[in-house]
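Researcher: I'd like a structural prediction for the single chain below. Treat it as a standalone chain; there are no partners to consider.
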Amino acid sequence: MMRPLLRVIGLLLCLVAQAVHAQDRYVDARLYPDQTAGWERFRSVERALVAGFDDVCGDTFCEGEYYNLRAMRLRCSVERASGQLAGCVWTFAGSNSSVLSDGRIDVDVRSYACALPLAAGTSLEHLLQSLEAVPPRDSIDVPLPGTSISIYEGLTGCL
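Model: Treating it as a single chain, here is the predicted structure.
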C-alpha cells in the first residue's frame, strides 16, 4: 500500500517541478540576467525614455483631451535561456476633469498599454545597447533593432 502512495507522491513532485520550471522560462527584464546586473541598467534606459516622452508630450500626445499623460512603467519579458525579448509594454495614464454646474467634479481617467514594435528575435542586450548609444532624451527616437521604427512612432498608434 505504501509503494503506490510513494509513486503518486513522486509523480506529483515531478509535475510540480516541471510547472515551476515552466514558470521561470520568462523573466522581467529588470531581473535578467539577475537582479543585480539587470535592475539599474534597465531602469536607467527607462528613465531616459520617460525624459524623451516628457520632452515630446506637450507637442504631440498631450495636446488632446488627456493633456497630463504620464509614463507609468516599461515592462519587458525576456526568455531566460536565450535573452530574447518576448515583448515589451509601456503603460501610460492620464485624466481629464471638469466642474459640473451642480458643483460635482467629473473625472475621466484613461490608461494605455502600448506594445513596443520589436522585431522578432530581438535580444534584450541589443535593445539596451541601441537605446544607450544616444543621448538619453533621444532614445525615444532611435529605430528599434531590426526595424526602421522608433518607440515614438510605435506610440503614435497607441496613444
